[in-house]
Amino acid sequence: MSKKAPFMVFSGTNSRYLAEKICNSLGCELGNMNIMHFADGEFAVSYEESIRGAHVFLVQSTFPNSDNLMELLLMIDAAKRASAKSIVAVIPYFGWARQDRKDKPRVSIGAKLVADLLSVAGIDRLITMDLHADQIQGFFDVPVDHLYASGVFLPYIESLRLENLVIATPDVGGSKRASTYSKYLGVPLVLCNKTRLKANEVATMQIIGDVENKNVILIDDMVDTAGTITKAADIMKEAGAVSVRAIASHCVMSGPASERVQNSGLEEMVFTDSIPYSNRCSKVKQLTIADMFAETIRRVMNNESISSQYII
Length: 312
What we know:
Elements: E1 7-11, H1 16-26, E2 33-37, E3 43-47, E4 55-59, H2 67-81, E5 86-91, H3 110-121, E6 125-129, E7 144-147, H4 150-160, E8 165-169, H5 175-185, E9 189-198, E10 201-208, E11 215-223, H6 227-238, E12 243-251, H7 257-263, E13 269-272, E14 284-287, H8 290-301
Parallel strand pairs: 1-4, 4-5, 5-6, 6-7, 8-9, 8-11, 11-12, 12-13, 13-14
Antiparallel strand pairs: 2-3, 9-10
Helix pairs in contact: 1-8
């Protein structure tokens, strides 16, 4: 008599905080795994319990530095060699996603390269959230479950009970994401048109729409150096906005980002916990996505619809 294969959840080093929350939501124990580091910076992965015939879920965001990606690749390879029945990479934040096309000659397409690395390593499925570009799903030849942080953000926005609410996007590229929020909430949409001289540096920005006497919420997928989002907030305050808040899925927050947010006109900056954030800023708040990922893992195991849990 055959019995249903068990599922097991394991975590990389820097995503353990999230994996533990996911396991608490699922009511299971986090798997026992050892990562041994050598003096030269090399490391090796070993599972300290049998995973033969099990559905293995590996939780690891691939945020900088590249050790997080390499650690995940070794976890996948070790699971494949240990005869796991299936290997599912759970990557709340998919790194290198900004390199999704050739925007000038002689450049790499990092997102495609990472997709190939994961596929060759041996994943059978990918669960991720708010990819920087939706077309990255097409870089994979395995099923991709693309989740949306709107499932935790929209209830939070509604709980604020803001009057004269306006949804805004700090750049035209994020207009589709912001538009879905504005339609769901039934409020106006405002755009910011920006130009750059070079990466991570905004040259000019103009507001397209009315923000005077409005409570504005900026929507973005990630905040890196926070130059764009804080500039947009300051310009909107100058244009007469009553308050400006920002919501972004991924808390990259590198370099001067925390200081910029603290000194900006933002009331608060809300992220998910897809990436750990240690450089604390009083304006930064993180909402957990553990329950959403736990529910997705449960549905994958039970062959149930994933899309039915989406709000928008």
